[in-house]
Every structure is written in C-alpha cells, then in structure tokens.
Amino acid sequence: MKKEVSVMKKQVIGTVFDGKQLFYIKFGYKWWKKSESQLRLWLDKSFLTKEDNKWFVEFPITNCDVIALDNEKDIIVKPGDLNLFYFFVASGDGNGAKSVIDSIDAEQPYQIFEYISEYEDGSTSTGALIFTRSNKVKIKWHREGYLNDDQIAEGTTLLYVDGRVETIQNDEVLKYF
Q1: What gap in Å lies between CA 22 and CA 84, rounded to an integer?
Q2: Nearest Cα to 163, choosing from 57, 73, 11?
Q3: Which residue ranges make up each domain of the chain?
Q4: What is the pLDDT of residues 77-122, one digit of tens each?
Q5: At 172, is the pLDDT very low, low, confident or very high (cuts 50, 70, 90)?
C-alpha cells in the first residue's frame, strides 16, 4: 500500500518480552520479505496514545532523544531534548517508478535515518526519520514514473514541530517574492 507525502499518525506494534511491554514501528518494506523491515523505531510509552485498544504515535515527536544501536536497524526513542520528524513520499505508479529525497536541511544539526519501500511492481518509495533540535525541517524531493492526477513530480516540503506541513512544487519562485 502506497501513501502520499507524510503521514503524521502511525499505529505502533506492542509486544511483551521478559515481562516488559515494548512498542515499535517498522519502516521500509520489501514485498518479498513482508515481515522484514529496514528500521525499527522503539518508542518510550510516554510518546504513545491508546485508541480502541490500539497504540499510536503522532509525528513530529517532541522532547525526545535517540539511541541508534550498532546494528543500524534498531533506533530507540526516549525522553530528551530533540524533535523527531517523519517524512515519506510515495513513488509514481508503474514498473520502475520511484521517489527520491534529494536533500534535507534543518536550522540545527540533525541525524537522518533513511529507508526505502520496494513494491511488487518494481516501484520504490523513500522515507526518512530526522532527529534535530530545530523546529523546522526542509526536504527537497522528486518522483519518477507515471504520476496520478493528485501527485506532483517534485517539491519542497517544510515540516514544523507543531505538526504543520507545507509543500510547494518549485521553491525557486520564492526568490522573486
């Protein structure tokens, strides 16, 4: 299932191990390895909400810290002083279609964890988790392949810590205003 640019609320998987309740989200998808993911984001329960017996997290997450384990797959999010932004852009449709994140910029130092979702039709979509003290992240991206009427080929998206998302197709127009 492909989704459009940025989904701000995601369902979390809960599990119990050795008497401890743990929560995580998988990022990255390979249709031939449905149970495997590129990244697992392990979340402190304080960042979650429960609705209809299901756990959810809403992005961006504020007041957090990150611990990236040596396997470069597991990322732990605990209380701290960073913000965590989530960004995902679906590919165009059709065989070989893809989306690409061209650049990410924030006003403060940042750490990026990128991932790719690969689908049965040969298309690939790209996403990223961005940890920063900044209140805003700027992401330039583009799509290749056939585009649906509601998809744009390229854009610049601003993600704000208050949850706002702004996208413009060509940020070059801003130079003239």
Answers
A1: 19
A2: 57
A3: 9-176
A4: 999 999 999 999 988 887 789 999 999 999 999 999 999 998 888 8
A5: confident
Over range 35-40, report the average pLDDT.
Answer: 82
Phi, psi of 85 (to 5 degrees): -105, 145
Which residues fall within 8 angstroms of residue 25, CB to CB, at 6 or more apart? 10, 11, 12, 13, 40, 41, 43, 57
- Distance CA(132)–CA(162), nearest Å, equals 14
| Encoded tokens for 127 | 């996403």
CA angle 131, 133, 138 (to 5 degrees): 70
**pTM over 0.85, yes/no:** yes
Is the CA virtual torsion 77, 23, 57, 169 positive or negative? positive
Alpha-carbon dihedral 12, 43, 132, 1, rounded to 10 degrees: -20
* Average pLDDT of the residues in 38-48: 95
